[in-house]
Amino acid sequence: MIRKILIGLLTTIALLLLAILIQPVDPMQYDPEEDVHIFPDSLSLLSYDLDSLKKVVGVNKGLPMGFETAALLAYSAYPQLKDVAIDMRLIPSGAPMESNFDLKTLLGKKKNRKYIIYLNNADNTPFDEILLRSLPFDSQVGILAHELGHTAYYHKLTTLQIAKWGILYLIDEDFRAKHERSTDLMPVYHGLGSQIYQYAWYVRNDPSCIDLYKSFGASFIDKFYLTDTELAEAIKNHRLYQ
């Protein structure tokens, strides 16, 4: 009896793995070529009606305490996510920023999914200089828009495709680089080109970040993320910024 149960379990696992592995998953993100709102080059000196912004982005959006305005502006650049449940959470550990899922919601209908963007807010981390709290306002908006670009990508995939994506992201550096570098273009496609450019420039050139950047440099940051020079070229050549 136990043998039959084990065989059945192993068969089920093997079939599930096969189903995951045959899924088509493109690491790249592409320009939706839709009309979008073009944001000013600088957002930091403007005033905002937060209640109006909340109506624009939808009622199912979590806001990180102290960064509500930056989060609302980033959310507002993605009208296709208005009905999607997303939370931005400050946490005491982990990567500086990470777009993820509420795993249990992946098992149901896509319309019921919930996504979570984790924002490290710990003290005395190796990444202090590039945590959200350390960034200028426009850079905050830019990197949050990058993370929402991941969310927009996930929401197009089936659960099995997300599983395949996760495996490839972890084991294939070229896959990861293509995905992250094309996700850097999502703020450009959604009218926040200046903001993602300012973030890329800041983490590479601001005096507070230079030592951290030298520690990683081209071996990590420039491999997996677009440089400010690459983003400037992409913005210059994009139809929205002509």
Question: Would you mind describing this structure in some detail?
Answer:
The N and C termini lie far apart (70 Å). The model has no long low-confidence stretch (mean pLDDT 91). With 242 residues, this protein is mainly α. Helices cover 48% and strands 8% of the residues. It has a three-stranded mixed β-sheet, with helices on one face. The chain has helices at residues 2-21, 50-57, 68-76, 137-154, 159-171, 173-183, 186-189, 193-205, 210-216, 221-224, 228-237; strands at residues 85-91, 97-101, 114-120. α3 (68-76) crosses α4 and α5 (159-171) packs across α6.
Instruction: Summarize the biggest pleated sheet.
Output: 3 strands, mixed
* Termini Cα gap: 70 Å
Number of domains: 1
The unreliable regions are none
**Percent helix among the residues?**
40-55%
SS strand fraction: 5-15%
Strand order of the largest sheet: 1-3-2
DSSP strand tally: 3
Q: Structural class from helices and strands?
A: mainly alpha
Shape, principal axes of CA atoms: globular
Count of alpha and pi helical runs: 11
List the helices and strands and how they pair.
Blueprint: H1 2-21, H2 50-57, H3 68-76, E1 85-91, E2 97-101, E3 114-120, H4 137-154, H5 159-171, H6 173-183, H7 186-189, H8 193-205, H9 210-216, H10 221-224, H11 228-237
Parallel strand pairs: 1-3
Antiparallel strand pairs: 2-3
